[in-house]
Every structure is written in structure tokens, then in C-alpha cells.
Amino acid sequence: MLLTYITGNRHRMPCEGVLRWFKGKYLPRHHLDISVIHKSLKEEGVTGWCMVEGSTTRPRSFLLEIDSQLSGENYSKTLLHELWHVYQHVKGTPQCEDEAVRMEEVLYKELSNLNIKLS
């Protein structure tokens, strides 16, 4: 089961499709609650954040913040990057930024070959 809450109409449809694809492929047995907030992150100097809400011992609820100024490939890769951090949290593996950067490329290529709208 996947519960989502997405703000920002511009990215709503591609975001929802990517979330469902990622959850179905990488975390199919987990019940997750993922909120995606599109907002300006310019002052913070990042394009995205992944935060655990609630329990950190068995995380299932997440807040992703994605810079609302991103579009196209940058938007998709940032969303996939933050979803990989969700994967790391759920699986209990260390939060590795290098791995998330590497996986955003792998996931983007994989998703580009499917009929899922990315942006």
C-alpha cells in the first residue's frame, strides 16, 4: 500500500507515476506514506531532501521536499535520488549520498525506457 500527498500541480502527475513505479519495483512489500512538497530550496542550496516522519527504527512515513524550480531531467533525477534515500531508510542501510547519486542515474535510465511520464 502506498499513501501519497503531493503539493504543486505542475509536478503532480509525473511525481505520482514515479512514486508508484518505484514503490512497486523496489519496496513492494512495504506500506509507505510519502508526502512530496514542491517548494523553493534555493536558500538551502539543495535540490531535494528526504526526511523520516515518526519512527526511525522502522520508518514508513516520509517527507520529500523537491525544489519547485526544477524541471525535466533534473526534476526526475532529484525525485529518484530522494526515493533512493527512502529505500535506504526502509531497508536499514546507511544513508550513502554517493550511492544515491549513482542510483539516480541508473533509475532514470530504467524509467526512461518505460512508458511513464517523467516531467
What would you note in describing this structure?
A 4-stranded mixed sheet has the order 1-2-4-3, covered by helices on one side. The protein contains 3 helices and 4 strands. The radius of gyration is 13 Å and the shape is globular. The protein is an alpha/beta fold. Strand 3 (48-53) and strand 4 form a beta hairpin.
Fold blueprint:
Blueprint lengths: L1 E5 L2 H18 L5 E8 L8 E6 L7 E7 L4 H20 L5 H16 L7
Parallel strand pairs: 1-2, 2-4
Antiparallel strand pairs: 3-4
Beta-strand share of residues: 15-25%
| Structural class by sheet pairing and helices | alpha/beta
Low-confidence stretches: none
- Mean pLDDT level: 89
Number-wise, the strands total: 4
What's the end-to-end separation, in Å? 24 Å
Order of helices and strands: EHEEEHH
Question: Based on the structure, what is the oligomeric state of the protein chains?
Answer: single chain
Principal-axis shape: globular
- Give the neighbour order of strands across the main sheet: 1-2-4-3
Biggest β-sheet, characterized? 4 strands, mixed
Helix count equals 3
Helix content: 40-55%
Our Rg estimate from Cα atoms comes to 13 Å
Give a concise summary:
With 119 residues, this protein is α/β, with parallel strands linked by helices.
Keywords:
119 residues; alpha/beta; 4-stranded mixed beta sheet; 22% strand
